Amino acid sequence: MATPYHSLSTIATSIVIISLLVISHAQDNAPHHGDVISLNMIHRDTPSSPLYNSSLTKWQRVSNALRRSRDRINRFISSEDESPDHLIYSQGEYLVNISIGTPPRTFIGIVDTGSDLIWTQCMPCRECFEQNPPLFDPASSSTYRELSCMSNECHLLSGAASCSSNSSSCDYQYSYGDGSHTTGNLSLDTVTLDSTSIPNTIFGCGHHNGGVFSGIESGIVGLGRGAVSFISQIGAYLVGGKYFSYCLVPNPTMSFLSNNSNPISSSKMYFGRLNTSSGPEVVTTPLLSTGDSATQTFYYLELQGISVGDNITLDADAKAVKGNMIIDSGTTLTYLPELLYDRFKSAIREALKDRYLEVKQDPTGSGLCFLTKYDILPGPNVTLHFNGADVKLKSTNTFIRMDDETVCLAFSPSSGVGIYGNWAQINYLVGYDLDNKTVSFQPTDCTTS
Ligand SMILES: *[C@@H]1O[C@H](CO)[C@@H](O)[C@H](O)[C@H]1NC(C)=O
Ligand SMILES: *[C@@H]1O[C@H](CO)[C@@H](O)[C@H](O)[C@H]1NC(C)=O
Ligand SMILES: *[C@@H]1O[C@H](CO)[C@@H](O)[C@H](O)[C@H]1NC(C)=O
Ligand SMILES: *[C@@H]1O[C@H](CO)[C@@H](O)[C@H](O)[C@H]1NC(C)=O
Ligand SMILES: *[C@@H]1O[C@H](CO)[C@@H](O)[C@H](O)[C@H]1NC(C)=O
Ligand SMILES: *[C@@H]1O[C@H](CO)[C@@H](O)[C@H](O)[C@H]1NC(C)=O
Ligand SMILES: *[C@@H]1O[C@H](CO)[C@@H](O)[C@H](O)[C@H]1NC(C)=O
Ligand SMILES: *[C@@H]1O[C@H](CO)[C@@H](O)[C@H](O)[C@H]1NC(C)=O
Ligand SMILES: CC(=O)N[C@H]1CO[C@H](CO)[C@@H](O)[C@@H]1O
User: Fold this and answer.
1) Average pLDDT rounded to a whole number, residues 302-307
2) Pairing verdict, β 243-247 and 118-121
3) Which of 300, 342, 413, 433 is deepest in the core (most CB within 10 A)?
4) Can you tell me the mean pLDDT for 4-25?
5) First-last CA distance in the chain
6) Is the pTM of this model over 0.70?
7) For atom 13 of ligand 4, which residue has the closest CA?
8) Class of domain 279-448
9) Which residues sit with their C-beta closer than 6 Å to ligand 8?
């Protein structure tokens, strides 16, 4: 809505009226007790993905995913050292198709557990990347409202918001480490997930946007831990508070499964606490936080060690306060602190040296690849020992096929913080409990759940 000028009292009155309308509307659709919102999570490399490039071969896709992985870990490492507004976005691997506005308009967002703000490209567009769904036009949404500079919401963005005067709009500016950026008005509108409408969601209505976008997505859905993150905002509407989880299926175009045409069910994201989040096989580890605002977005875990068979290697440097590892859905490989990685690699090499020929070629940067047309099955039992939670990986989590002949360890060394990447999370139900500050893992066949 273009609001050239309103007196403050008019704005305040409108806010009250709009809020009342929105809340009463929302209650019709609000989740009932026991309902959890379920969304498909589209991997960029599945044929149903709007980002799918059919002219790439399977192995090009793998190699691209690993390149994105390297870009992203580098952002995580630099964002730890640099300023709070140095955000890490570097593509990410999964998309969700949600809606924004009244009536709802399609919003295809990249799921980013490494940033907070949810934003979409908006009309009038002064600088935009190409996108497939029509641009969101605030003027066509009856529930859209621009936030003022004096609003509490505007203050939540601290350094990323600026105001020319108290009565002006709340202008935000986000620059990601990879050169991607969005600038626009911080606003409120209804976001619809499946059939659940969540009113007054703070989002960035971006009028100047650019960077590494692929032409289909409309923006980013930030699912970090910070105050403006989507999950922090919508917790009040969810069953069991600020809780989301996902279950990632093996990707048929990028995995051990050699059959591209075999349809496989989609990965799922759930908002709200699932009943299964405390079953017998569930393991749970605390989420750690730095006092440091620069990194309070990230989901830090403490990885105490890693076992290959019965041999355990401990990470002597594991930092109990802050955590030595970030769990992330947008990075493919898992990155271990260097010393831990070196010992892990030696143990894997030791366990497989009699069965497979090691090849020096190192397309992953993983440093350990084997020549084999067959999958490494059974592989050695690999267990990640998080504080209080032993996560037992399957061979399909531990190794990644690079081409018809080569299988590599799906792990790489990191010179800074580690990343628990999405490949190692496939076929686990991973639950993020922001209220209880825990992350839980439950082995699950995600293709049938
Ligand atoms: C989930 O738990 C809630 C509350 O304990 C209960 O009402 C609901 O029936 C449960 N749902 C399932 C599918 O078990
Ligand atoms: C798809 O991949 C081909 C081959 O690498 C490339 O030339 C083309 O630009 C890609 N298309 C898109 C939309 O990324
Ligand atoms: C997103 O959802 C809308 C509404 O359900 C649908 O019309 C559209 O085709 C979907 N887009 C993609 C790329 O899945
Ligand atoms: C905005 O308002 C605050 C207090 O309400 C005041 O301290 C500040 O000086 C005002 N700033 C401008 C630019 O008017
Ligand atoms: C691939 O999947 C198709 C359809 O499900 C099936 O007919 C075909 O036999 C499969 N090929 C292989 C090699 O598994
Ligand atoms: C465990 O360590 C011992 C001693 O270094 C070694 O002999 C054995 O092969 C290792 N087992 C595995 C599964 O790596
Ligand atoms: C892996 O662990 C399972 C039980 O968890 C055991 O039955 C199996 O023998 C182990 N495999 C190897 C190679 O040690
Ligand atoms: C989460 O915390 C609440 C209260 O702090 C507690 O009642 C509940 O049992 C906890 N849930 C889990 C799954 O730990
Ligand atoms: C940064 C930005 O695009 N701010 C815009 C917010 O909205 C007002 C009008 O609604 C524009 O004038 C600003 O340019």
Assistant:
1) 94
2) unpaired
3) 300
4) 38
5) 42
6) yes
7) 165
8) mainly beta
9) 277-278, 436
